[in-house]
């Protein structure tokens, strides 16, 4: 038997149960990983609440973790028992001591990256990789706006943007979070709970506004985000921390300056083994160079996943959070 977190109905954190299960043996093309650390992500909350549908209930939860390969299925030649690995995609169920998934979704860890760092960085770091290097291929010299800059994805983005020579203006909800984002390399910060964001962006950029806005807050920030773009700028809406953006009138993109908009996901970018490996290599190089340092600001025992999710949903976390089986 092995422990995992599962939920039999959608709802608040109280639906999460810590249970004993018989771990699945890996099928053809699959591996089983004994997790040393599991990454906590906002998307886990979307599945738990029912905003994103799950295949069936009861369901496991979580897609990010790192550990050691514990068993391999038939026809897996790329990985062996004992390999140190990490993953950020695949079936829900990473909140567990043992997780079985396709070997195609797993990468071997370089020696210099420990499992806690990998679990804290894989999903969030691969997301920053595609957002800064692919969704808009930043060259250096651009000015971008990044909402929730002191969060898990945001803390990595501040450092990566700085390394690229990009001026990142980060929004945050407190002076403590502003200090953290600036320490991580944000060029400027705005408290979006107190200040007029578009007005502050206008001042900071001498009226030039932003090339790209990265918005994972969603409902509450959508329209303000559009107001922070220069003409023909790109709006990247990549999350729903405050609720999903709905009922958009496309004409607003014309009114606010012939804007572009995209709604990307990690699954849409790391969609082949080749692309996944290239993105992971880029992330690992950033981690090994020290240009990106992952801040594991919260650690919870796996059994306390509900408390960890409650803290994340209530804006009480900064940086990355991991669960330890
Ligand atoms: N599309 C993709 O590929 C992809 C991949 C990974 C993550 N994401 C998205 O990126 C975002 C960040 O993920 P994360 O796991 O790193 O979380 P996080 O940024 O650590 O936490 C979310 C942050 O959002 C801010 N926020 C603003 N309004 C909020 C509200 N009403 N409720 C809760 N938080 C609110 C809070 O920061 P302040 O207190 O400073 O406002 C909070 O700390 C999420 O929206 C997630 O879904 C998308």
From TrEMBL:
One of its GO terms (molecular function) is quinone reductase (NADPH) activity. This is NADPH:quinone reductase. Residues 11-323 form the Enoyl reductase (ER) domain. Belongs to the zinc-containing alcohol dehydrogenase family. Quinone oxidoreductase subfamily. It catalyses: 2 a quinone + NADPH + H(+) = 2 a 1,4-benzosemiquinone + NADP(+). It comes from Halomonas cerina. Pfam families: ADH_N, ADH_zinc_N. CDD domains: QOR2.
